[in-house]
Prior knowledge:
Blueprint: H1 10-28, H2 33-48
Amino acid sequence: MPGDNRFISPEQMFADELSAVFVRWYEESDLDEREMGAVALTVIDGFCDTTVGFTPDFDLDDDDDD
Length: 66
């Protein structure tokens, strides 16, 4: 059935969405593949370069091997 995404993994759905955006930008802008790739890598690096703050509620130096 067209439009039925029950059998498509989230990873594939994400890849399909990104591909659609790339095709649209490739067709409608003056950017070429390399420029688009460079911008995409910058965005991905910025998105993935996040840190998570963690404050433990226990002493990390406490070696309790009981």
